[in-house]
UniProtKB/TrEMBL annotation:
A biological process term (GO) from this entry: positive regulation of interleukin-8 production
Organism: Terrapene triunguis (Three-toed box turtle)
GO cellular component terms given for this protein: extracellular space
InterPro entries named in the record: Cystine-knot_cytokine, IL-17_chr, IL-17_fam
Organism lineage string: Eukaryota, Metazoa, Chordata, Craniata, Vertebrata
Official protein name in the record: Interleukin 17D
Keywords: Cytokine, Secreted, Signal
Annotated family: Belongs to the IL-17 family.
Length: 115
């Protein structure tokens, strides 16, 4: 059995865009609702899901008494999903110390061999 939830949304308004009104979803919880009773679990976090969308953006030009529009691509939040929270460990490959060491190694490899 699939359970679907109606997500809350805000209406984005831009008079220079077509469509002028675009609904944008947002996440209600910091964590994710899990388990039989839908308890909020902070081992996961709610994060928006985005969808690329084409809109028309009005330019300052007119042609034949009508506005001129250009195609523009925007990302719109359309829902939420759960992602696991990352463990914060000192030995992690993603730690800032490891990133700084990698930058040093890359910079050393970029130097000309004559030095």
């Amino acid at each position: 059995m699939n359970i679907y939830y109606l997500l809350p949304c805000r209406i984005s308004y831009d008079p220079t865009r077509y469509p002028k009104y675009i609904p944008e979803a947002y996440c209600l919880c910091k964590g994710c609702l899990t388990g039989i009773y839908g308890e909020e679990n902070f081992h996961f976090r709610s994060t928006p899901v985005y969808m690329p969308t084409v809109i028309l953006r009005r330019t300052s030009a007119c042609a034949g008494g009508r506005y001129v529009y250009t195609e523009d691509y925007v990302t719109i939040p359309v829902g939420c999903t759960c992602v696991p929270e990352q463990e914060k460990e000192a030995d992690s490959v993603n730690s800032s110390i490891d990133k700084q060491e990698m930058k040093l190694l890359v910079n050393q490899n970029d130097k000309p061999a004559s030095e």
